[in-house]
Write a sequence for this structure.
């Protein structure tokens, strides 16, 4: 009876029990729950509780093995994923470093290339090349100024309490002097090149009206050297520049108009003016050349007499606030000056004055030699202008022209043809 209950209990647990001798032998050999005694089926068994405990332990062990397998698999996958991520991260860092190196190398090459161009004879673009932070390259900087409102030049003009505007003859001076007189609300017309006089006390005793803008022609370096010795953050020097050869040709045209317009006896032009009427004027070629050689009126002075080694040395030693400006940009300069010093003139700008605009007469040069030719002065200057300065030795006192040439390369390369000058830039020239 007890045996029957035992078999039923074991069957309820889902355990397939042997039903004959062969099955008993096989089962005993395989799981050890029963021991075969003899053919009378004498089986010594463990208690039901021990069997259940054994099965439970077996099942728990199997579950732990499965859990361990799952856990191990997941760990292997996680480790593999981590290794892959680390590998990718390392590759990304390597790629990023390579990109950074290439970028820095490109910046260095660009800065060096711009620097080389600026050191050459024709720097045609404004360049401010700064290599990226951490790069070992140096930057070459040309301090071009923007002449539009609320830009670089506007800021300089706005901060300055006193502004000096200078230029050689045929450098836009007539227009700038007329603008300055109206901007300062002056009635007095000052003499040509008045700033070159040693005594300037009249500027202090005339009235309480401050002449915040002083404009004058200059013919020599001493005038700018004197100005350079009084550097201040409240003082701004603006020198209007024109290339020397071009300026001389314009000066020759100017004196020819004077000769044809003026009374010949008063100005000793009687040997030069052969004939004239309201539409034509004929000048003697030889006599005209003599006047040019003397540096008469607008022909004399000029760029080579102003921009000398002495001036460049003074600018380097004193570092005044100085801007070089192409004479073709004076209209923009008038706008900036008017904004800060005489805004009531803004609607009337630009103010232009040039007696050379009164070109009512056609001017000719007469060759009194064998050819007896008559040629228009424009054609004569076109043919002989490039040779004229050398033939007449008009630059006999010139110095440091290489610096001027480099300055012109940078000035004419600036978008607005306005260049801020510093001791460093002069040293570079």
């Amino acid at each position: 009876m007890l045996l029957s209950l035992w078999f039923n209990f074991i069957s309820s647990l889902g355990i397939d029990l042997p039903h004959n001798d062969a099955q008993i032998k096989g089962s005993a050999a395989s799981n050890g729950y029963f021991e075969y005694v003899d053919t009378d089926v004498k089986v010594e068994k463990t208690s039901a509780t021990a069997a259940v405990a054994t099965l439970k332990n077996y099942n728990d062990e199997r579950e732990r093995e499965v859990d361990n397998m799952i856990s191990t698999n997941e760990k292997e996958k996680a480790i593999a994923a981590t290794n892959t991520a680390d590998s990718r991260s390392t590759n990304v860092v390597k790629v990023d470093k390579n990109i950074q190196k290439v970028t820095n190398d490109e910046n260095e090459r660009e800065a060096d290339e711009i620097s080389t161009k600026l050191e050459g004879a024709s720097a045609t673009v404004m360049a401010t090349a700064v290599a990226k932070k951490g790069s070992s390259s140096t930057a070459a900087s040309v301090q071009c100024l923007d002449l539009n409102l609320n830009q670089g030049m506007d800021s300089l003009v706005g901060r300055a309490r006193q502004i000096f505007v200078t230029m050689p003859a045929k450098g836009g001076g007539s227009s700038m002097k007329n603008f300055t007189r109206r901007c300062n609300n002056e009635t007095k017309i000052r003499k040509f090149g008045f700033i070159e006089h040693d005594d300037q006390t009249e500027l202090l005793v005339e009235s309480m009206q401050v002449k915040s803008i002083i404009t004058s022609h200059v013919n020599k370096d001493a005038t700018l050297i004197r100005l350079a010795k009084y550097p201040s953050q409240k003082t701004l020097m603006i020198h209007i520049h024109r290339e020397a050869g071009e300026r001389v040709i314009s000066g020759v045209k100017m004196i020819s108009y004077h000769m044809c317009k003026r009374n010949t006896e008063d100005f000793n032009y009687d040997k030069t003016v052969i004939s004239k009427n309201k539409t034509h004027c004929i000048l003697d070629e030889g006599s005209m050349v003599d006047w040019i050689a003397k540096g008469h009126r607008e022909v004399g002075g000029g760029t080579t007499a102003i921009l000398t080694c002495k001036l460049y040395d003074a600018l380097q030693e004193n570092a005044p606030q100085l801007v070089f400006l192409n004479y073709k940009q004076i209209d923009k300069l008038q706008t900036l000056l008017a904004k800060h010093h005489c805004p009531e003139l803004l609607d009337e700008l630009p103010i232009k004055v040039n007696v050379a605009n009164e070109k009512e007469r056609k001017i000719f040069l007469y060759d009194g030699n064998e050819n007896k030719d008559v040629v228009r002065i424009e054609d004569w200057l076109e043919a002989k202008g490039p040779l004229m300065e050398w033939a007449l030795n008009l630059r006999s006192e010139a110095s440091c022209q290489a610096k001027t040439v480099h300055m012109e390369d940078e000035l004419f390369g600036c978008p607005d043809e306005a260049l801020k000058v510093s001791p460093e830039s002069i040293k570079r020239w």
Remarks:
- Residues 48-119 form the longest helix (72 residues).
- Residues 113 and 129 are 9 Å apart (CA to CA).
- DSSP finds 15 helices and nine strands in the chain.
